[in-house]
Protein 1
Amino acid sequence: MASIFSAVALMVCGRRDAGSSAAPINAVSHWYWREEALYFRQTDIKHTALGYLTHHGASVFWGALFAWALHGRPAARQTGAVLAGSMATSAVACFVDFHLTPQRLTPGFEHRLSQRSLAAVYGSFAVGLAVGALLVRGSGAPK
C-alpha cells in the first residue's frame, strides 16, 4: 500500500511540479540510467518501469521494517500507535534517503519535486504503511 500511495503522490506532484506524471518515477531509475533518467519526461519501459520497480523495492524494504517493529506488540492493535509508527518510519526513510544515502542511490525524485511535494510523497508513504498495517490487522481479527 505504501508503494502505491506514494507512487500516486509522485505522479500527482510530478504533474504539478514538473509538468509530467512520469518524471519523478523516471528519476528514481537514475541509479542505473544516471543523469538521463533525472530529466526524462515520457512514460516508457526503460525509465518508468525500472523507476517504479526500484521505488517499490524500497517501499517493501521500509514496509518490512515497519511490520517487523509492529509484530507481536500490543500497540499494533491501536490505530493511533500504528499511525504514529508509520509516520516515524516514513520520517526515518526520508532522513536515510537524503542524509545517509550516497547521491547515486538517493530516490532521484527530489530533482523533479518541490519541498512541499516531497512532504506529500513521504506523507502518502506513511498513510500507505498505516493502511496496509490496519488492513492486515483487520484480516486476522476473529469473526
Note: The chain has a mean pLDDT of 94.
Protein 2
Amino acid sequence: MADSNITKRALASALKELMESTPFTKITVSDICAKCNMNRKSFYYHFKDKFDLVNWIFDVEYLSHIQLGVDLIGWDSVLHLCDYFYKNKDFYRKVMKVEDQNSFANHFRDIVGPVMAEDIKEILGEQTNTEFYVTFWNDAIICSLGRWISDRNPVPPKEFVRLLQSCIKVVVKTHERLEG
C-alpha cells in the first residue's frame, strides 16, 4: 500500500510540474511517466487516464481531509473548499477548463450531487424532480468556481464566498417579490 501511494504521488507531482509550462490537454501519459522515470504500465496499473490522476489528486489533497455528508454542509465548508482551490489555483484553473467525460468537473459533480440531492429533497420534498435541481446548482457552482479561479487576480476566498451568499439572497428576494 505504501509503495502504491509513493508511485501515485510521484505521478501526481510529475503532472503538476508539467502543467506549470504545458496545457493539460497537451500532456500525455507518456510525458507524465517520462517526468518521473516510470513506464506506462505503472501508470495504468494505478489510473485509467490522466483525468483519473487529477481526480485522485483532489480526492487525496482535499476529500481525504473531510467527512462527506458532515463537513460538506454550511458556508464554512464552502469557504474551506474555496481556500483549497485558491491555494492550488494554478493547477485548478487549467484543469477546470477541460471538459471531457472523465474531467474534474464531472468528478466534482459526482461528489457534490448526492449531498445536494439530500438537501433539495429536505427543502422541497420527496416528490421533487431532484435531478433537475442538482444539475442546475452543480452547473452554477462549477461555472462560478471555474470563472473565479480562472480570473487573473481572483478575489480572496472569503470575499468570493460572501459574493456567493449574496447571490443566494438575491434569489430569495426575487422569489419573495414574484410571490408577493
Note: DSSP finds nine helices and no strands in the chain.
Protein 3
Amino acid sequence: MKGSLRIGILPTIAPYLVPDFIHHFRNAHPDVNLFIDEKENASLVRELRFGNIDIAISTLPEDREGILEIPVYIEKFVAYFSSECSQAQKIIASGSLPPEQMWILREGHCVPNGAMNFCKNRDIGNHVYEAGSIETLVRIVDRNGGYTIIPELHIPFLSDRHKENVAYLNVTPPAQRCVSILIKDDFIRERAVNAVLETLKSIIPDYMMEERLKKHKIKLR
C-alpha cells in the first residue's frame, strides 16, 4: 500500500490510540504517508464530507447523513474520585452519581444513552472549569474533591495510588461508548480501511473489540 492516508480522531480518544497507532502503522506500511489530526465530532464529519480526511476514528455523530459507520470497539466509563472523599467509592459503586460533585469534560462526557448523557443537561456537574483533557480533570479532582467520569483506557495512565480511586459504574443502561471507523459512504479504499482496523486491533484489548471484526475483514462493496 502506497500513497497518503489522512485520519481524523476525536481528542478524547487520541491519547490512548495515536502514539501506538503511529508506531504500528508505520512499521506495517512504511510507504504510506500518514497524517493524523484531532478534531471534535462535528468537525470530523465536515472534513470527511469535504474530502479533507479519508477516515475518522470517533464516536457516532448525530449528523451522519452520507457517513458509513464501522463499529470497532466498546469502551466503558469509570468514575475517578478524590481520596479525600471517604464515602465516594461506595456511593458511586451503588449507582448513585451526585451531580453537584461531578467535574465535567467539555465534549467527552457526551455518553450516548439516557442515564449518562451529561453533555446535554447543563444542570448536571460542576461547570466552573470546562476541562479539555482527562488528565486535567483527574488533577482537579485530586485538588478539589468530588469525582469525574473517565474512559476505561485511561486507567493504565494512572499511578498505582490513583488506580485505587477508580470505581466501576453500576448504572443501567451501562455507561460506555462505541468507537467507530467513519468513512464517506462512497469511499472505495478497502485496503486502507482494513489497514486502520488491523492497527487498532493491535492496540485495543481483545475483550473490547466487536466480535465480528476479530475474524473478518471489512468489505466495502
Note: The beta strands are 3-9, 32-38, 55-59, 67-81, 102-105, 126-131, 147-151, 166-168, 176-184.
Protein 4
Amino acid sequence: MGRIGALTLFVMRGLFGLRPFYPRVFLVQLVQIGWLSLPVVGLTALFTGAALALQIHSGGARFQAGDVVPAIVAIGMVRELGPVLGGLMVAARVASSIAAEIGTMKVTEQIDALVTLSTDPMRWLVTPRLWAAIVTVPCLVAVGDIVGIMGGWLIGTGSLGFNSTTYLSNSWAYLEYWDVVSGLIKGAFFGLIVAASGCWWGMKSGRGAEGVGRATKSAVVAAAIGILAANFVLTGLFFT
C-alpha cells in the first residue's frame, strides 16, 4: 500500500504541477508520444481489423450469421481492441523510452543538475509527458479505430463477398455514440498509465546500465498490466 500511495502522490504532483509550464517540452513530447507512435498503432489496428473480420465470418458462418461481420468488427474495435491494443503498442514503445531516458538522466546526474539550476524535475520531465500522453493516446485510439474498421472492410469486400457500400453502412449503423466515446476515455486513462509507469520507474532507476535496463523492463510490464486491469474496471463501469 505504501508504494501505491507514493505512486498516486507522484502522479498527482505530476498532473497538477503546471507552473511553470514548459510549452516547448510539451510539444516535443506530443511528437515523441503521439506522432511517432502512429505507424505502429495504425499497422496493428489494420491487421487486427482484418483478422477479426476473418474470424467473425468463419465463426458466424456456422450459425448462418456471417452478415454480422461489419457490425461486430466496428463495435469490437471501438470498444475494446482499438483502445487496448493501441495502449499496449504505445506502452511497448513509449514507456520503455521514457524510463530509459529519465533513468539515464538520473544515472548521469542530469536530474541533480536540474535541481542545482532551480528547475523542478517533476515539472520539467514528468508533467509534460503525462499530459502529452493523455492528449495523444485518445487521438491514436481514434485513428486505430478507423484503420481497424478499414482493415475489416478490405477483407470483407476483397475476400468475403461483401458489397462495399453495405459493409460501411452496416458498420456505422450499429455503432452508438457511447461506444466511441468510451473507447476514447479509455485511451486517456491508458495514456496516463503509460507515461506514469515510464516516469515512475525512470525516477526510481538504479545506478549503472543494469539499473536502467531493469527500470525499462519494469515500466513496460507495469504499463501493460495497468492497461489490462484498467480496461477491465472501465468496461465494468461503462457497460454494466
Note: The chain has a mean pLDDT of 90.
